[in-house]
Amino acid sequence: MSGEGRGGWILIKVLTVLVYVFMFAPIAVVLILSVNSSRFGGFPMAGFSLQWYGKLFENEAVVRAFHTSLWIGVLTAVVCTGLGTMAALALVRYEFPGKQWVNALIVGPILVPETVLGVGLLLANRWVGLKPNYGLLLAGHILLSLPYVVLIVQARLIGVKRVYEEAAWSLGANRWQTFKEITMPLIMPAMLAGLLLAFTISFDNVSASVFWRPPGVETMPTEILGMLKVSISPEINALGALMILITVGLPLLGGAVARLLIRRQTATNT
Question: Is the pLDDT of residue 1 over 60?
Fold first, then answer.
């Protein structure tokens, strides 16, 4: 390799490292400062302490926001996994008029900024006389999370050969039995990954939740925004660290479990 080519690769590596540092340095700072014993967050650290996590769990407002985000996230994940799996099956396995339009409508929310969707759904509900409520909050989170589940399950279904299902039909199984015994076990890794991703998207959503939540109700992200308006307390670093662990850890866990299940299925088939 010539000197110019080697210098180009070195420059690319340096820029790549700088990009990763720019992306992950703020996350590392929040995690580190969440265990700083000093009330005034900053470096150098005064010492190691978990006191801010303890005070965080004693904060009733934070606990209520956590419960709200938790049950909204669980309901969103369950509904999106069910609807997303059915939609993916219809889009991959069947032909029907307007199939491309249906696919575009399902995936469309990914392409629209969340703030625009939040304002649009809020105005639409006000036009029909509805005020922000839990139903609107749940529907909005489903709207934002469903496309990701559909895309994940679709990708897995495309890789599952239809001959397995046809073999089950030829042996007398109906469509429900075929799905339960053949198709669902094969796409279970994608369903699990979609479930965890939908929960993460819902739990971490802030821009849309600001417009859809009922008055006086806070989710974890909106609670953080409210705390920042008052002051930057050490509890915010602890709360941010917990949010990071949940929203980053769950997708990583889902990906690891999905890969493990796929490997076991591959080993069984071979």
Answer: no
